[in-house]
Amino acid sequence: MQSFHSNSPAAPFRLAVPERQPLFTGRGWALLAALTVVVAIGVPVCALLVPEGHPLHLSAYALTLIGKIMCYALAAIALDLVWGYCGILSLGHGLFFALGGYATGMYLMRAIGREGVYKSDLPDFMVFLDWKELPWFWHGTEHLGYALLLVVLVPGVLAWLFGFFAFRSRIKGVYLSIITQAMTYAAMLLFFRNETGFGGNNGFTDFKRIAGFAVAAPQTRTALFVLTFLALLAGFVACRYIVTSKLGRVVTAVRDAEMRVMFSGYNPLGYKLFVWTFSAVLCGIAGALYVPQVGIINPGEMSPGNSIEMAVWVAVGGRGTLIGPVIGAFLVNGAKTMFTAYFAEYWLFLLGAMFVLVTLYLPDGVIGLLKRLRERSRSAMPAKPVAQEPVSSSAVAGRTGGEA
């Protein structure tokens, strides 16, 4: 009788895991490289060497406006990472943006030194409020390196603490969105108080120098512009790396079916916490680059309306795409600049109408619309005729002979 048992060792079981998506295609890398060269070389040339009045000249206003929108675009990418890929709609990312701005603002206020109105080592608002010494949390902010460390640590630690307790309690959906909105509103009310040591209603302004260079100098503004672009590019590449990795696939699975992920042996807490904290740090970096370019930071940056506006940028551009939020930030803020100049009283109504129309007719945003148009154009193209191979005379003769 034949035995079905075999002495050979069984082959190990291997789970077929799909290969990682490429970070970018060859065309994508070439486009990023070309864009970097244009900004790193072309912008300084147009801003510093091209004379005023020339069509290619970049004015200080244009540099500030585009640089500010690039900061918004970086914050939009950060929000898209948690909303588009992890399914967490945060209405409090404006808080992380403002905290990064305040960390930079503290350094810029200390850099004023005795050039302020009151010729004191203390910031002007502290002298006005009759403060005698710096609060303990201001010590060390005269060093740029320490301020940059605060830009990363303050939003990151706050986001980690909030996320740990919120995600561990399995708070999700609209409840989490409301809590994030309440958190940023409470922080705004706290920073409005003069006793907190952050300038109260006026915040920080009248900056003089950054890293020893005059903030208002054209060379400094150009350098900040290029630095903001590089930060935006680095943030985009980093988020793209995350979402194309195994971690990104798990995060996307958490968004689509968190319970199934848990039953598969994964703990969603760590994945959600990492993405949430990284997103907050990106927002802090965006805020840090925003402040020296616009020249002011106050508690108004923490208003819930700003966080909601970030969600509008992501929705307009297309969430879950990374490039869509960049497009949305430029479209919405470009329209805001134009409409506030001509229709200042109706801008908020136009913003609300834009969000409603996008929700109803463009659920996938501008990127989704472009994809549908591309698919429609491809389907409308006539199919290429299939070329028939020529039949040789010998084959014809053989066929006729066989029929005979």
From TrEMBL:
Compartments where found: Cell membrane
Major place of residence: membrane
UniProt-annotated stretches for the region Disordered: 381-404
Annotated GO CC locations: plasma membrane
UniProt KW Transmembrane helix keyword: yes
Membrane topology value: Multi-pass membrane protein
GO molecular function list: branched-chain amino acid transmembrane transporter activity
Keywords (A to Z) from UniProt: Cell membrane, Membrane, Transmembrane, Transmembrane helix
Pfam families: BPD_transp_2
Entry keyword Hydrolase: no
Coiled-coil residue spans: none
Transmembrane portions of the chain: 29-50, 56-75, 82-103, 144-167, 174-192, 223-243, 269-291, 311-332, 344-362
Protein name: Urea ABC transporter permease subunit UrtC
